Amino acid sequence: MAAPLHLHSSQASPLPNSIKELSDSAGLSSIPFLYASRSSEALLTDVVEHEVPIIDFSLLKKGTPDQRSQTVRDLGKACEEWGFFKVVNHGVPERLKDTMVDALGGFFDLTEEEKGEYTRKHVMDPIRCGTSFNLNVDKFRFWRDYLKVFVHPVFHSPAKPHGFREISQEYTTCMRVLAMDLLAGIWESLGLEESNLTTALDLHSCFQIFIGNYYPPCPQPELAMGLPPHSDHGLLTILLQNGVDGLQLKHKGNWVNVKPHPNSFLVNTGDHMEIISNGKYKSVVHRAVVNSKSTRISIANAIGPSLDAVVVPAMELVSDGGSSVAYHGMRYREFIEHQQANPLKDKSVLDRIRL
To answer: Per the database record, which ranges form the Fe2OG dioxygenase domain (predicted)?
Structure first.
């Protein structure tokens, strides 16, 4: 195994501004040492193959009463046992998904100067692109470029490439509708009233962020990481991939490869689902690995409560179940700022509010 490339201060060339720029460099055979983020422990951890639960969305929306009740139970079981599931028969046109992936690829194909217009410093800037996770706090850099756009309750979009605004608005609207239908089923599986949760979390003004990830081929994928182990901050994250493997989740102490399923979405529960359910539906730790041959593009839509909502466990789950409150409240905006402004590691922010 080749050693990572050490860049000394005497070398004339600084690190490129993006992973795409670095990956496109002629003759790149080793990664700079700053990108060698995988520990020996991570390299030795077994990765296993398991089938993630599959939810037939059409049965949730249009099935018979018995089919819908069973799907709600399946949804609850998937949230409780895995925190991840695949959604099939969701009704989102394949054309829309493919066009969205192509449009995101077009964004990352822009020149560094064009993308530089959206290089921002603050984690709550509504349009922000960059590399790694947060260069201000990352000990190592990650093999990933990103575009993060706030799309609800106020819609934002980069001006380039041509047509990106229109397709991203159509796509993110579909994702928000899908998320609300899934949340309705999840609330039902928990025995919670949908209207109560909509009011408590101010879901009409839910915070939705579009996150586009670009993981180009890496000459030493055994040393680099696309993203380190982490949980997501919101209620649900809906993920679209371009068919290239790279997502792994933590399940019963093992890392599990999550294979893309034709015409499906991957959905995972976030930290605020864990808070609402008082720990019954836990957010799941996952990571992104890279490969040496293919570019992986993924598009995540993270759906959370209103930024001003102070989220606490649903009282029905505490009083009815005889459980004590497991988390104290924190304003959702502050939760995000804490997570995004600090090194990304497991459930670091959720652990801060756990009682």
So the answer is: 202-305
Q: Which bin fits 137, alpha (ψ -120 to 50), beta or left (φ > 0)?
A: alpha
Answer whether residue 49 shows pLDDT above 90.
no
pLDDT over threshold 70, residue 39: no
User: Is residue 270 in a domain?
Assistant: yes
Residue 187 within a domain: yes
Mean pLDDT over the full length of the chain: 91
In this prediction, residue 134 carries a pLDDT of 85
Residue ranges making up the domain that contains 128 = 46-352
In whole angstroms, what separates CA 177 from the centre of its chain? 18
**How far apart are alpha carbons 107 and 115 in whole angstroms?**
8
